[in-house]
Amino acid sequence: MSTNPAAKKPPRYAVLSDAAVERHARMTAEGVYNLAPFEVFWQQRQRYLEEAGYLLRPRYRPNWRPSWIGTNLSPRYCEDSILLMDYQVMDATCIATNELVAIKTFARDTEELQIAQFLSTFKDPMNHCVPVHQMLPDPFDHEKALMVMPYLRPCNNPDWSTLGDVVDFITQTLEGLTFMHRHRVAHCDISIPNIMMDAKTLYPDGHHPVRLNFAPDGMYHVTPLPRAGRSIRYFYIDFGLALQFQPGVTPTALGRVGRDREVPELSNTVPYDPFKVDIFALGNLYSHEFEKKYDSMEFLIPLIEVMTRRDPVQRADAEQLLIKWEEIRRDLNQSSFRWRLAPKGEPAIERVLNDTVAVAWHGINQLKSLVG
Predict the structure, then answer these.
(1) What is the pLDDT of residue 287?
(2) Which of 96-105, 123-132, 263-272, 346-355 has the weakest average pLDDT?
(3) Rounded mean pLDDT, 328-337
């Protein structure tokens, strides 16, 4: 369970010997921990973003001085040593709400930007496209814009642990696919990296936005709460390859694009239906992430089969898939939703042990929820 580290002393692994302190002091003076060139982009926009209501981490503020200077703390475990991982996306804190947001730099007037804004306008419970909170003009480049979105975490970090987790993920991603297709938008790059989640309920005390398995201070490890019984919302992100079609226009596309290279009809010369590509990619995701990885996933086979047929014409559309999935889900025993996901090929003795541990942890978490 996440814990509040505010009153804790630094852990042993964060404290350096005298020799290591001297070594890191030299490295700091030599610029080893300086901002990377792509980070300077965001430092230059720090004041502008703060005036707009978004506060960047201390590392990106004017006149930043490393917090470990003059201490025996390892820079690795000081929050302001943590580099940005994706140069296009910066985490920030919304000053008004104290919640994390993500700010992405975009080229203006791109179809990606237009589609993301279009989908964000719909207040529909089936809308699982990442919301756009605000669009800001770039203060230094009139050809760029800054898009403010909620901060989200990879959908498989932490990994799914129960059958109910899988059922919830499939329900939400099929709802989101149906919503996009109803509004004539094909994502064209459905994959695990492009599905993220709002995981605040798993980390009630927060986690670091870059070093995901650490507390916000970057020093202490955090352990997530289980997904079971907690509200997790999944979102499709990254509409860089997405296509939008007007009503009555036949949807066609060209190009071997997207992360899923197993889609059979992708071609640079023969047009294909991008909506059917979405269907295959999502079904293939279910196959690789769940049916091929865990036992007791037989209930998914009929769904995956109609999504991944080699002939696109023979694949069900999103509306049909959602209906089929609701029928499958109704036939599942609700008590099975608490079952632990057992990897295929797990030795029997390990399975007994892991099942026992899973039941024990479920009981502990239930007790904690009751006592607050």
Answers:
(1) 98
(2) 346-355
(3) 93
Work out the average pLDDT over 188-192: 98
Give Cα separations from 172 to 124, 143, 159, 181, 277 (angstroms). 12, 35, 16, 14, 19
What value does the mean pLDDT take over residues 73-94? Answer: 96
Per DSSP, the three-state class of 217 is: coil
How far is the C-alpha of 147 from the C-alpha of 124, rounded, in Å?
Answer: 21
